[in-house]
Amino acid sequence: MQIPFYKYQGTGNDFILIDQRDHQFLQRTDQHRVHQLCDRRFGIGADGLILLQNRTGYDFEMVYFNADGQESSMCGNGGRCIAAFAQHLGIVDERAHFLAIDGPHEALVRADQWVDLKMSDVDRVQIRPDHYELDTGSPHYVTFVEDVDDIQVVENGQAIRYSKAYRAAGINVNFVEKRAVGISVLTYERGVEDETLSCGTGVTAAAIAYYLDAPSAERQTVDIQTKGGQLRVRFRPDERSGFRDIWLGGPATRVFRGSIRVD
């Protein structure tokens, strides 16, 4: 079988995108095949794979798999990339309304390849002595450090992700440094089981933790530096019900297209 695909990246977070509106190339149960396609030596190579499918009442449905082949929770940068992909395919113009595993999402696709994605509301944040835990579509552990350059992301991230508290379900781990303007974020991602150049749900979680660390109106829009580039998160805190109107913004770029033969 020959599978046509596109490769997109959002601040270095890269994805294989497959248009399944007219033909079902992959099933949700094709975990081994997805893992092979995401392999950087024996496949196309990516942090994840995304299927674009028809869904009644929406412009499309997003089905996201981590690089390990498991269908996963929401991916923010993947959501921005699939919105750009949908515009390229002519499904949407500037606005997209699509369904993902955590519910409906809106996206605004600008001419300069910048995509703003509306994230799910955050109803609860667990504030611990040395970190924050919250779900921004995927579960995240956020801890502040003096200098992200001093952090061994894989070693320290694995120690937390595979600790007794998180081993079974897994958790993404974010190391955050406060800057003169905004924050810098490094992320260890479950499913990828490695550091990624950027994580959309991770920087969203980090921005909310940054606000909670010292609440102010200025911290409701946060500029975020990742290894893959610049992102921006804005939101509206609600004292009674968490955080609303959460938007993740950043570039989403088509890298190349191709086709691959799978047995």
Fold topology:
Layout lengths: L1 E9 L2 E7 L11 H8 L9 E6 L6 E7 L9 H13 L6 E6 L2 E7 L4 E5 L6 E3 L4 E4 L3 E6 L8 H9 L10 E7 L4 E7 L4 E3 L3 H14 L7 E6 L2 E10 L3 E10 L1 E9 L2
Parallel strand pairs: 2-3, 4-5, 10-11, 12-14
Antiparallel strand pairs: 1-2, 1-17, 3-4, 5-6, 6-7, 7-16, 8-9, 9-10, 11-12, 12-13, 14-15, 15-16
Provide a concise account of the structure shown.
With 263 residues, the chain is of the alpha+beta class. The protein contains four helices and 17 strands. The chain has two domains: 2-117 and 252-261, Diaminopimelate Epimerase, Chain A, domain 1, CATH 3.10.310.10; 125-245, Diaminopimelate Epimerase, Chain A, domain 1 (Roll), CATH 3.10.310.
Instruction: Please state the CA-atom Rg, rounded to the nearest Å.
Output: 18 Å
End-to-end gap:
6 Å
Listing every helix as H and every strand as E from the N terminus to the C terminus, the arrangement reads: EEHEEHEEEEEEHEEEHEEEE
Strand count: 17
What level of helicity do the residues show?
10-25%
Mean pLDDT, to the nearest integer, reads 96
* CATH fold-level assignment of the largest domain: Diaminopimelate Epimerase, Chain A, domain 1
Strand-pairing-aware structural class: alpha+beta
**The named CATH superfamily of the largest domain:** Diaminopimelate Epimerase, Chain A, domain 1
* Count, helices: 4
- CATH first level of the largest domain: Alpha Beta
